[in-house]
# Entry
Amino acid sequence: MPRQITLKDHFFESRLVMNRAILLLVAGALLLAVLLARLFYLQVLAHEHFTTLSEDNRVKLQPIAPNRGLIYDRNGILLAENLPSYRLEITPEQIDDMDATLGALEEIIEIRDIDRSRFEKLLHRKPRFEAIPLRFHLSDEEVARFSVNRHRFPGVDIAAGLSRHYPHGSLAVHALGYVGRIDEKALQQLDSSNYRGTSHFGKIGIEKTYESILHGTVGLQHVETTAQGRVIRVLSRTPPVSGRNIYLTIDSRVQAAAEKAFAGYTGSAIAIDPNNGDILAFVSEPTYDPNAFVNGIDFGDYAALRDNTKQPLFNRALRGQYPPGSTIKPFVGLAGLEEGVTTRHSSTYCPGFYTLPGNTRKFRDWKHTGHGTVDLNKSIVQSCDVYFYDLALSLGIDRIHDYLQNFGFGRASGIDIQGELSGLLPSRNWKRARHDQPWFPGETLITGIGQGFFLVTPVQLATATAALANGGRLLQPNIVYAEQIANSDDLLPHQPRILDTITINEQQHWDAVIQSMTDVVHSARGTARKIGEDSPWTIAGKTGTAQVYGLKQEEKYDAEAIPEELRDHALFIAFAPVEEPKIAVAVIIEHGGGGGSVAAPVARAILDAYLESSPP
Amino acid sequence: MSIVLTPHREDASRSGWQYRLHLDAPLLFSLITVSALGLIVLYSAGGGDIALVERQLIRLGIAFTGMLVVAQLSPGMLQRLTPWLFVLGVLFLLAVLIGGEISGGAQRWLNLYFVRFQPSEMMKLAVPMMVAWYLADTRLPPNPWQLLASATLIAVPMLMIAKQPDLGTALLIASSGFFVLFLAGLQWRLLAFFSVLLAAAAPLLWHFMHDYQRQRVITFLNPESDPLGSGYHIIQSKIAIGSGGLLGKGWMNGTQSQLDFLPERSTDFIFAVLGEEFGFLGILTLFALYTAIVVRGIMITIQAQDTYTRLLAGSLSMTFCVYFIVNTGMVTGVLPVVGLPLPMISYGGTSIVTLMAGFGILMSIQTHRKLLSA
# Structure
């Protein structure tokens, strides 16, 4: 019997295996059913969800930077353009030995430290398949040299792009400003969505003030990318809107003539059209080349500009605040007439100094020997200080302040370049608030000759002169003449803005002051007679010499004996032609000495440059 | 009339060439169709690289030749060779553990100078053959001692392979051995007992797992826990399959596959390429072919004439079933990531040769039967 147990029952075993096999098949079918249910869920029920995820994977939104608007002068001469520029790019994933490659590149192309450090910063931030710029603005020679050696540098390429360029270099740089690369700090201030593709933005000047107009609107494209982000193709595209072109009111010929006339002087000159407030020339000397800033200025070059004692980066036209000196006299004289404090015919004796009643302190006239008996005309023509000490005292600081305020002194002119300072027109209230002191009569005297606390910017002085020239209309100086939508010929002009109209009590008063200013230039004893001798146009002007350095009571001013940085500022204001004023200028030359000898010729050069070329 | 053990309706339709070449037409047809479909998907998964397809075609050629050769060996001869094959395999595995070549962090390869191969592949066939060989002479169902002996025959090579480490293959080998035991009539109460034991041993298993294997389990339970790391594969393959929809994005048009979002798309995750480009219908087609292969294998099992061939054929068929279910389960996120390719379709590997040799055994079993008709 036990032996029988070990006998195999083939029929039983065949049935057993068959049953078990069918069971396994059923089990397999169940698993398959689970799997199919899962696939049905993924592919049919949740299909849309996964389609969205898949699209999100493959489609990326890429910005397309708009072209920056161009800047022209009023005659259509290009001042800021976008030039095709070649940059050297390196794709890290194609480079085996980065140090060796950079070393070899350095032999044929100049690589500055700033290029290298920026490159290394980007190297850590960007994906390895993305080309990273190493050098911008390759010269033609460098492009050629690299092209010949290209086979030695797999993964290194030259890419073309547009780069801001200022073809006239430093011309009008303090008005134009410049663009620079967008850095982390700037990114927080800019509209991040509109600047997604943009590398540069206006950092100063017109470029900054009109940034929103010049920049344009970013375009977008949907691109298909691989998992690594490499672009395969463009799916759809919304083109960018280019920034608007800007036409400046500046006349580059006048600007160039003005800058030339400065001939190394430090200072500022503003020329303005008294009929509409257009700035014709905007000079602040010395200047610098804005092109150096576009792609990051070398640290050494920047330090040289920053540490230069003449401060080329300082915008004197907007931010330089100077005592107006004698150039204020026509305004104070007009105040005296209009306020009824004096008449054209009343005169004062000038012994060369002035003392307040009951006080021994002498207020000196610039002319030691005195001017003798002078009326308003003579006092303006010869720039007598004593007459104006007396007049100022009669007017009092309150009336001086209120009247001069009409001409825009003491407040920002509203010029459309950012960063303007407002100067200082002193008053009782101001002194109380600022110094917590009462106003002293002596301060009224020196205010009357544009000294003391009184400070003006060149732009203010030019605007005030223009208001004098146009018969009392205080215009907002504007530096943009028109905007132009890209690819269109139509100009959208900026309208002139009258800020204030000065009440004229008697036209004769104005005429008298203007006549006196004309005599400054054209009469035999005028302080600026030298520029009037051969002038084809009648010029009304006023010289000014502003003290930087206070003289002691009995000390004599001797230009040769004191260091240059303490010498007087030379000033001159003028407009011409007197009959029908087309241009008003204010010139300030720091430590230049006499207004008539130094500043007036610069003003004359500006007037000539404009009037010779301007249509009648 | 004599007694017939198997239905003979089919035998009447057998054509001569199947017997002469020892091939099984339905199985061969299904295998060729799956391979062809695989080449089409592989061409797309490789980004249109024809060289990749050519290399795979050569591999398939070798595999089909291997199948043809194995099919010529009679089941009797296979049965006689079984112990030698098994012993040789174990020795090879031992050699691998001592001095095998390391590739991809695992020690799986044995360099025999004239050929470099993975002994674990050989064990995929040797283990079920050995267990079937052992049980063939016993009376079914196996008693506990026989069960213990069988379990040892399975466990020794399995643990050696798991140690390499190659969890996927170890799992396949374990299941192939298990299928032999199950077909041999493993008692249900013992099955239940072992299931409980296995569940209880799970924490212990966790303890012996490699870090990357543990990570796979964690990822499986929550793929979003590390979407850019270990969960990335599964997230991207689900997106690929799901976005394929009913009809797919079209051949060569799968964005997930063509734009590199899907990792390992020509090897372990090729199923996702099929799902993305050919959709649910494409997957149904593949499943239909796979099912045909498994069903045909079970039919051969049922028609087989002795215990050895029955147990072996059934185990080989069901192992194939496990093979593709584990891979597709992994790619669709219902099973943890186990490094198993999609059979007949994934690029590369010696596995395809083993697989086809297995089908060669099935064909041999089917075509060496003695007709018992009168």
Observations:
- Chain A touches chain B at residues 5-14, 16-18, 20-22, 24-25, 28, 31-32, 34-36, 38-40, 42-44, 46-47, 49-51, 53-54, 57-58, 224-228, 232 (CB under 8 Å).
- The first strand of chain A starts at residue 59 and ends at 64.
- The first helix of chain A runs from residue 2 to 6.
